[in-house]
Amino acid sequence: MPDTDWVIIVVLGIGWGTSFFFNEILLRELGPIAVSFARISMAAVFCWVWLLATGRQPIPDRKYFPQFAILGTLMFAFPFAIYPIGQQYVASGVAGIVNALTPVMVVVISHFWPGGERATLLKSFGVLAGFFGIVLLTLRALSTDDSSQVFGTLVIMLAPVSYALAMNYVRRLLHLKVSVILAWAFTFAAVLLLPVMLWNEGWPAAISPVAWGAVVFLGSVLTGASFLIAFHILPRAGATKTSTVTFIAPVSAVLIGYFALQEQLGVLHFAGMAAIFLGLLLIDGRLFRRRSASSGL
Question: How far is CA 267 from CA 224, 249, 253, 271, in A?
Fold first, then answer.
């Protein structure tokens, strides 16, 4: 994988880490399902505008519609609803950290998925190091007597499983244009969430200009544009390396939580970040392969 793709992954990770901060802002005025619906709907609008502006054919064969619906559910509707629900009980930094389980789940599921990536020893050590970093970062929250934090953490853990399934499932669609895949997947996800939102929360009341700004930025830039970029590098980077974007996201989520939301930052957080970066190096593998070659091993 070229170095430029790693730069893209790091930038995406920093951006996606901030999404938990915007969720925190929106949860002050909207219910969790409404936050997810607003984010996905805005992403769908962004992708349709991009699709039409670039002159892509927006209507593929109808045989793909069920696959778009499945992808939209696994990649967007389910996990995007899970995060705001969980964030009612845990801090934004913890939500970002649990999201970093995604590469772990991707390695496990890809290994058993027909035609998926097989787990190598170096890659396995990498995801274990990343997982250890997650444990360090969440240790304080999980050791508390507040059972609601444990519940929120367990709820959010369902999202990485869904992401891992989606990142393997999407490979059957990658012969289509990425903008077409995402425009339809976001649309199906929004349609799916709409009745759920209306049933549980009703139609959102008027929200503040700040919340509208958060919706636009979260939906268009941090979701629509970001997934267009992520899916663009997915075929050459593979599901595991692309998913390591979620190893970067916890770092920015924790730092933003510290500076903007006055959440606590301690020694365990720094140790966890170090373990996560070691995991990234192991998953990439090039540094260790060069050392082995130079030592004649």
Answer: 35, 19, 16, 6
Residue 18 CA: distances (Å) to CA of 62, 86, 153, 294: 36, 16, 18, 40
Cα distances from 252 to residues 61, 240, 246, 275, in angstroms, run 40, 20, 10, 15
CA distance 55 to 161: 35
Between CA 104 and CA 240 the distance in angstroms is: 8
Burial category of 51 from C-beta neighbours within 10 Å (exposed 0-12, middle 13-18, buried 19 and up): buried
pTM of the predicted structure, to 2 decimals = 0.78
What contacts 128, CB < 8 A, 6 or more positions away? 279
Task: Report how far residue 13's alpha carbon sits from residue 7's, in angstroms, rounded to the nearest whole number.
Answer: 10
Mind listing the pLDDT tens digit for each residue in 228-239?
A: 998 888 877 777
Who contacts 151 (Cβ-Cβ below 8 Å, separation ≥6)? 89
Q: Which 3 state secondary structure label does DSSP give 204?
A: coil
Angle at 275 between CA 270 and CA 278, to 5 degrees: 130
Token readout for 183 is 């425009």
The confidence score (pLDDT) of residue 91 equals 67
* Most confident listed range (35-44, 74-83, 93-102, 249-258): 35-44
Q: What is the DSSP letter of 113?
A: S
Cα 184 to Cα 195: distance, rounded to the nearest angstrom: 18
Between CA 76 and CA 16 the distance in angstroms is 14
